[in-house]
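Support case: user asked for a sample of complex input and structure output to validate their parser. Sending the pair below.
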Amino acid sequence: MSNASERPAPPPDTGDGILIVEDDPHFSDLLAGFLSPKAGFGEIKRAKTLAQALEFLEAGGFALVFLDLHLRDSRGLDTLIAVQAKARDANVLVMTSVADEELGLQAMREGAHDYFMKGRIPPDGMRRMARYAIERRSAGLALKKSQAAMEIQLRHAQKMEAIGQLAAGIAHEINTPIQFIGDNCQFLGQGFTELIAFFEGFAAGRVPAPEDLQRRLEALDLDYLSLEIPKAIQQSLDGVARVSKIVSAMKDFSHPGNAIRQAVDLNKAIESTLTVSNNAWKYCAVLETHFATDLPLVPCFQGEFNQVILNLVVNAAHAIEESRSKRGEATPGRIVIRTQRIGDEVVVEVSDNGAGMPPDIQARIFDPFFTTKEVGKGTGQGLSIARAVMVDQHKGRISVQSRPGEGTTFTLGLPLHPVT
Ligand SMILES: Nc1ncnc2c1ncn2[C@@H]1O[C@H](COP(=O)(O)OP(=O)(O)O)[C@@H](O)[C@H]1O
Ligand SMILES: [Mg+2]
């Protein structure tokens, strides 16, 4: 089960230890001698079995693992796969016997850093190989770090861009109720002035003559005022409620707590995102929501999740616009959002009856910067970010089903008990 302080990814293991996994004591001694701290290497640990090796790796702190694939408790590529699953950021160098070169090549294909045949490499060569492997690991770690930083920046940039695009729409959404609140206030002000003028006549105890009273009552048009004033008040209150709904949705949408997974009401998060993005879809589509009423709270990075929903809804609106312009249709399209709990997952579906996509496009949509849209409309980042948020960050999933000319459904799965 997740806790409130967990982070999206564990920090890299920058340890400089060396682990030798070898059941031949003679060769293990030899290797340990070559790579001694005196020669500038980190601390050496030695394991004879896979079980021991995994125990060491569990504790971490290794830059390199020298691995013999044939151990008492594990043989062949299975040994490599088990070690790699625990090796985190360490590079694995596979050692084979002379008769086993093919296995070394297979190990490389499985992601081993390098392989060599025992007894074939002199001490110097061995040290050089270890040093290169350590160098390349440092370079890899640095790259990973800058990639992670870049990914965060990109995600942030896309969010800012989306907010920028939404801003005009939101301004319009807020402007409309504000305008009629203004008109209503003006009308109420006039009505009030007229009423006060009428009653002022009575103030000094001057009761008007009956015909005069009749004339002034008619001028006041009390029937009209008693009908229109409550209406104007109610309309203004509705307008205020609308504006405050938009403002609170904006607050929800730009939710900053993105370093922390929190228990989130996804229905509410989606509702807020739809409110702020209203302008992006309402001119081309009718939007339906089918929210499960018994949805549990889901451990979620809310700001990022909101961004995923926004990206999907904007894409759906674009796909509908595209198909409508192709067919010259005037009827609005349809976007359907559904939430439900299925087993240990909360599933969110976003469907549209827009242009759809052929399989060759579907295969590329999650690639960074892949877009079929013209410059200014698409940057090709929406779905690659959605994938990173759903899969890497939430340990969930995202998939697509689409038919050209019929429409598209994106399915998101968020685990209720994410494994981290
Ligand atoms: N709902 C959809 N219907 C049809 N095509 C879609 C849909 N969503 C995404 N696509 C396709 O996937 C591409 C990549 O989407 P995305 O990563 O959001 O980038 P962008 O929207 O900026 O092009 C789009 O250019 C479009 O071709
Ligand atoms: Mg997009």
